[in-house]
# Entry
Amino acid sequence: MPKSEIIISDWNGTLIEDKDEALIFEFIGRGLIKGSFPLHPIRFLRLLGAKRKLGKLSDGVDLPLGEYGVEVLRQMYEICNSIIRGVEIEPIIGRVNAYASDASRRLEERMLRPIREAHRASGKKAGILSIGYRYGIDRILSAGGYRETFDFIEANELETNGSKVSGLSFHTDKVKWLQAVLSKLSLSPDETIYIGDSGHDEPCFEIVRHPIVSFLASDDFKQHCARKFGADCVPESETDLLKYLQSI
# Structure
């Protein structure tokens, strides 16, 4: 059996308690609202309208598994893009930096500590694959002292045109994304550990040799994965996770 050479992890609901990007978007939005009034009243009204749309979208979603569907996430990104296009990048970066310190308190250290130890001791590569916001992930990990644990972060990016934002990219097909990352690194799914917390990650579980379910996943999802992929993929403690990472 090939030895695992890389640990790739989801972000939201896996390495951080947040299930989606709503909190960071809201924090950025509040800052933009404050900065847009009274000098930019039209932007101010657009921001308030976007806040109402996002709230209505969230309220209308049933979350039996603790996750948003891809279509809902797409609509969220469209709403956010409609208000950040043309905005100067610097205030957004400033808000993300301010957000990171508080958000780092919600990091799931029971996952992060074993990944860090496996990365250090065995030389396994480690990375993050997320439909979240890459710069936000980077800053939160840095604030929590875990940025050096990961060799790369593959996530959506703020795209710019000069000093202004043109939009936030939105990639959702994690299997194709995972395959592209492994191809770039000349690694195979048989050499890969993938960590996730929800149905969005299950297609990745299906192609790698070593799927692992986050402690933050729902009990229903843990039980489902234990039946489908084997009990080893659902560690019961931080110690169990570290031993498993060291054994494969």
